[in-house]
Design brief:
Elements lengths: L1 H23 L10 E8 L5 E8 L4 H10 L1 H11 L7 E6 L2 H22 L3 H6 L1
Parallel strand pairs: 2-3
Antiparallel strand pairs: 1-2
Length: 128
């Protein structure tokens, strides 16, 4: 149980460092300002850190390539900020949960609009 808490704390620290770097530290033109870190998962042996990023607007592929090209710089900065014996390898993955949530919201609104249009008019029952 203690190991789980430790990996969660380390994951949160890595998330803070990378989030602040995306705001001010990385000067790659492929990385837009609409990139945010949604989650970080660290393996139990602390050898890998999976960083889930949400990319809104812009080209998703080129932004991911920009992040992957800056991974050594990001790892070095994480190493300076988070004191560990071995800094985990950082692997970036695209998190589509926000995009999927917006799509589900659109579908729910569409179904609700269809149900409202095809259902009876409530004013007719109020008059009787």
């Amino acid at each position: 149980m203690a190991s789980y808490n430790r990996t969660k704390r380390i994951a949160e620290e890595i998330k803070k460092v990378i989030s602040s770097m995306l705001i001010s530290g990385i000067k790659d033109p492929r990385i837009t300002s609409m990139v945010s870190v949604t989650d970080v998962e660290v393996t139990n042996d602390l050898s890998y850190a999976y960083v889930y990023v949400s990319i809104l607007g812009g080209d998703e592929e080129s932004t991911l390539l920009g992040l992957k090209s800056a991974v050594n710089y990001i790892r070095r900065e994480v190493s300076k900020s988070v004191k560990l014996r071995h800094t985990p390898q950082i692997i970036f993955k695209v998190d589509d949960s926000i995009k999927n949530g917006m799509y589900m919201d659109h579908l729910i609104r569409k179904v609700n609009e269809g149900a409202t249009a095809s259902s009876f008019d409530e004013e007719e029952f109020d008059e009787e």
